Structure formats: C-alpha cells, structure tokens
Amino acid sequence: MSSAGERQILCRKDGKPMFFVAESEKMSNGSRRTIYYYRCPVCGYRIEVEQVYISVEKDSIIVRRLIRAPPQSS
Ligand SMILES: [Zn+2]
After folding, report:
1. Which pTM value belongs to this model?
2. Where along the chain do its domains lie?
3. How many A from CA of 28 to the centre of ligand 1?
C-alpha cells in the first residue's frame, strides 16, 4: 500500500493541490518538445519539473532532457 509517485505538491501561494501536466509541442524544424510541470488550478502558478527535446537527425533520434530540482513539498 505504498503511494509512491503520488506525492502531492501544494501551491506555494494558496496551498491548493497542484495538477501534473505534460505539454507537448512540435517545433518548426520537426523536433518535438515536451514540458512536464505542476500547475495550480486556482491561481495558475506553475512549477516546471522537466523538459524533453526529441529531434531526428538522419537516422538517429536525439533525446535531451533538462531536469529541474524536484519541487519542495511543504
Ligand atoms: Zn495557487
């Protein structure tokens, strides 16, 4: 009965539980960027967690990840 991975992140401004959001967009050069973040449904405050860039060059797929420090749960 572990709830690992369901750690609740609370908004720094109003203390409401934040949603985890994954947002993907396609860039003009054909690469793709996905941003993972927590967003507060009340005030819109967001905490970015990770960005992933995927690009294709010839026969290779290149993945670059940019990981931020995990948000603090208070
Ligand atoms: Zn908030």
Report:
1. 0.73
2. 19-67
3. 33
Cβ neighbours for 3, distance < 8 A, ≥ 6 positions apart: none
Let me know: does 63 contact 33? Beta carbons within 8 Å.
Answer: no
d(CA 21, CA 37): 5
In a 10 Å sphere around its CB, with 0-12 CB exposed, 13-18 middle and 19+ buried, how is residue 10 labelled?
middle
Q: How many A from CA of 10 to the centre of ligand 1? A: 8
C-alpha 36 – ligand 1 centre gap (Å)? 17
Q: Name the pLDDT band for 29 (thresholds 50, 70, 90).
A: confident
